[in-house]
Design brief:
14% of the residues lie in helices and 28% in strands. It is an alpha+beta fold. The longest helix is centred in the first third of the chain and has 13 residues. It starts with 14 loop residues before the first helix and ends with a helix. Bound molecules: arginine. The site of arginine has 14 residues, from β13. Keywords: Disulfide bond, Hydrolase, Protease, Serine protease, Signal.
C-alpha cells in the first residue's frame, strides 16, 4: 500500500504538482495506478509543500558535485537557530570546512560553490560505527539562522507515541526507489507506521532495546540519503523530532523496517542536552 496521493491536489505551487493536477483533470478521477508524478518518493512519499518543514536541512559535501543536489549527503534538522541535529554516520571523521548546512525546500541545480557555515561538529561520544549505536551528531553553525521555525527534539518520555497504529512523518532528499538511485530535488515526505521493538528485533536480532525506534512497511520507508533527517510528530507546540534516520536493510522491503536513533534514550538525551545548551 502506498499513501500520499490524498493531498496531491494541494501542491498547486510546484511544477510536478501542476502536472499532477492536470493529470487528475484529464483522467477525471484520482487514479490508483502510479504515474511518473506520483510514483514512489523518499520511498512511497510525495513532494513536501514549500514551507511545510522550514527546519529541514540538507547536509552538503562541499568537495563533490556541481549542484546542491549532487552535494547532498544527509538530512539534518534545525533544532535552534545555531544547532542542527543529524546522524553520527553522516559526519563521523569529517571536518567543518568539508561540509555545509543548507536550509530549503528545493535543492537547486546551480553550480554555485558554497563555503562552509559550520563552526563545530559534535559526534556522540559513544557512537559505535559497527552497529550504529548512538547514531546522532550535533552541528553548530557559525551564524544563527534566525526567523526560521525550528523542530524540538523529544528529550522527555516518548512512549505515548510508540504504539501500534501510530505513524510518524519522515522527510528527506534521499533516493525515491529501492533498488535505484533516483534522487528528488524537492523534499519528500511520507507517513511511516510505527513497528514495535519485538517485531523489529525479529528482523534485526542484534538490536539494543530502548535505543532505537523502528518504522516502515512494504513500500513506505526512508532510504539512502535520508539519514540524519528527522522522524517527526506534530504536537500542539509544533513539530517534534523523535529520532533521526539511521539505517535499514534495503528500503521499504516487507518485514525490514527502517531504524531510527531514539532521542529520548538516556545517553542520546544527555548528549543533546549538554552539547546543545553550550554556546
Ligand atoms: N543509512 C542511510 C543513509 O545514510 C539511511 C538508510 C535508511 N534505511 C531505511 N531502510 N530506512 O542515508
Amino acid at each position: 500500500m502506498r499513501i500520499g496521493y490524498r493531498s496531491a491536489g494541494m501542491f498547486g505551487l510546484t511544477l510536478s504538482a501542476a502536472s499532477v493536477a492536470v493529470a487528475l483533470l484529464v483522467s477525471g478521477v484520482a487514479r490508483a495506478a502510479p504515474d511518473p508524478d506520483t510514483s514512489p518518493r523518499i520511498i512511497g512519499g510525495t513532494d513536501a509543500e514549500p514551507g511545510q518543514y522550514p527546519f529541514m536541512a540538507s547536509l552538503q559535501s562541499l568537495h563533490r558535485g556541481d549542484s546542491d543536489r549532487d552535494r547532498h549527503r544527509c538530512g539534518a534538522t534545525l533544532i535552534s537557530p545555531s544547532w542542527v541535529l543529524t546522524a553520527a554516520h553522516c559526519v563521523d571523521g569529517m571536518l567543518p570546512p568539508q561540509l555545509a548546512v543548507l536550509v530549503g525546500h528545493t535543492l537547486g541545480t546551480t553550480p554555485r560553490r558554497r563555503t562552509s557555515n559550520i563552526k563545530a561538529i559534535h559526534v556522540h561520544p559513544a557512537y559505535d560505527a559497527e552497529d550504529l549505536i548512538n547514531d546522532v551528531a550535533l552541528i553548530q553553525l557559525k551564524r544563527p539562522v534566525n526567523g526560521v521555525e525550528t523542530a524540538e527534539p523529544m528529550l522527555g518520555r516518548d512512549s505515548a507515541w510508540l504504539r501500534l497504529g501510530r505513524a510518524f512523518t519522515v522527510i528527506g532528499w534521499g533516493v525515491t526507489e529501492f533498488p535505484g538511485d533516483a534522487r528528488p530535488t524537492v523534499l519528500q515526505t511520507v507517513q511511516t507506521p510505527f513497528v514495535p521493538f519485538k517485531t523489529c528485533r525479529e528482523a534485526y536480532p542484534g538490536l539494543q532495546a530502548g535505543s532505537v525506534i523502528c518504522a516502515g512497511t512494504e513500500g513506505i520507508d526512508s532510504c539512502q540519503g535520508d539519514s540524519g533527517g528527522p522522524l517527526l510528530v506534530k504536537r500542539k507546540t509544533g513539530w517534534t523530532v523523535l529520532g533521526t534516520v539511521s539505517w535499514g536493510e534495503g528500503c521499504a522491503l516487507p518485514d525490514l523496517p527502517g531504524v531510527y536513533a531514539r532521542l529520548s534514550q538516556g545517553y542520546v538525551r544527555d548528549f543533546i542536552q549538554t552539547t546543545w545548551t553550550r554556546d
